[in-house]
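Session log. Operator J.P. requested a structure for one protein chain; no other inputs attached. Running the standard single-chain path with token output.
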Amino acid sequence: MRRVLFTLAAVISLAACAGKEGAAGPMGPTGPQGPVGPIGPGTTKIILTAPATYSASSGYYGAVAVLPAAAGTNPTQPPAVDCYMASAPSSGVWLAVGGGTTGTYVTFCGVVYGNGAWSAVMSRMPSGWTAAFVVAY
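Structure written below.
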């Protein structure tokens, strides 16, 4: 009886020892495509361009593009706007322009709400350059 218990204990202890793990098996097949999600905001994209013009009041060159009413009429919800400028638009080279403050001497871009509409504005541009405003709403 002792021998049976000893053999049984040995078999159980050997079964409990895990051996070396092998390499992972191959990846299974790709699952089915999920349903199309809902359309989110920013599905309309427009690109507006404007040449740099001199402003006697600021003493700088800048550009303004009035956005369509569809871009929004709520002064607390500005549209998404990216800004670029180019010295030669047909070259395909456009420089990204970020936001800034009026105390800096670099080109800056933003949006302004007035007279019931949004406008994209760029200030302190080089003379002769062109602004491009990419608007999503």
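Operator note: The first strand starts at residue 45 and ends at 51.
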